Amino acid sequence: MALTQRTPRVVAARKLLRRAGRDRAGRFLVEGAQAVREALEWSGAGSGRVHELFVTDAAAARHPELVSAAQAAGARLSPVPEPVAESLSDTVTPQGLVAVCDLLDVPLATALSNGPELVAVCADIADPGNAGTVIRVADAAGAGAVLLAGETVDPHNGKAVRASTGSVFHLPIARDRDADAVLDACRAAGLTLLVADGRGELDLHDPAADAVLAGPVAWIFGGEAHGVPATVAERADHRVRVPIHGRAESLNLATAAAVCLYASVAARRRRSPSAAAVGEPSPTGP
Q1: Which residues pair with 220 in a beta bridge?
Q2: What residues pair up with 119 in beta bridges, in sequence order?
Q3: pTM for this entry
């Protein structure tokens, strides 16, 4: 029997478009060929972390390898007509591929259990596109984890997942509405807390800053409009100034995150030239 928008499985999946539905079910939707591919690689054969793949006939014809990978991963394959696929999408141009996956986030202690030396903390970032981009940048810079503190948007939001271009599946992600708990966990893991601040006492490009930047650090980033919350910034070990050499008022969040995270990578290399980089992503990647 063909699935319709009233089929219980479709109705249940559609509830995952909202955060409350995702939190209740412990699952989220992954849409599009690239994101589904990353989800299936994250899931692995028979792991059960990808539960179902809704796919139109046209999408199945375009991506037969994803259909095969979903079956190998033990996911239920559910052919659907275009209107059903559209009802499960929050994009303007649905691709006809939607996977139902387990939530990605792990406890704070788990995210920090491997002793990461570079961590990105998103503090009260409300825009899902910004949060997803920070996750992508952190992944590219070789960060060991991304922590979402306070009222930061759900990383399982469809726009956040798309903005991450698959990076949500590459590194540990933890979230906690208690920002102090996130900062305490970072300190307990031996991380120095750094906040990017236009009036910070530490110049990002000052050679003297290398001693700080090269150590185990957690960079804290806030939303575009208001920056890092004052109560969070007050707990930082250093406020780091990113010099503005031209007339621009400031850098946007994604650019600032890239500059800061890569500054730590560069400082670590300068202090230990023989140390291998943690990952070598292509600067021209997707």
Answers
A1: 121, 195
A2: 145, 218
A3: 0.90
State the pairing for strand pair 192-196/202-203.
unpaired
Would you list the DSSP string of 15-69? GGGSHHHHHHHTEEEEESHHHHHHHHHHH-TT--SEEEEEE-HHHHHH-HHHHHH
Place of tokens 């696929």: 85
DSSP at 282:
-
The Cα–Cα gap between 138 and 119 comes to 8
Q: Hunting for tokens 């906040």 — which residue is that?
A: 195
From the list 149, 148, 168, the residue with the least C-alpha distance to 159 is: 168
Q: What's at 92, amino acid-wise?
A: V
Digitized pLDDT (tens) for each residue of the chain, 286 residues in all: 679 999 999 999 999 999 999 999 999 999 999 999 999 999 875 567 999 999 999 999 999 999 999 999 999 999 999 999 999 999 989 999 999 999 999 999 999 999 999 999 999 999 999 999 999 999 999 999 999 999 999 999 999 999 999 999 999 999 999 999 999 999 999 999 999 877 778 999 989 899 999 999 999 999 877 788 999 999 999 999 888 889 888 888 999 999 999 999 999 998 776 554 444 444 444 4
Residue 223, by phi and psi: left (phi above 0), alpha (psi -120 to 50) or beta?
A: beta
Q: Is 219 helix (H, G, I), strand (E, B) or coil?
A: strand
Cα-based angle 237, 185, 161 (whole degrees, multiple of 5):
100
8 A C-beta contact, residue 248 and residue 268: no
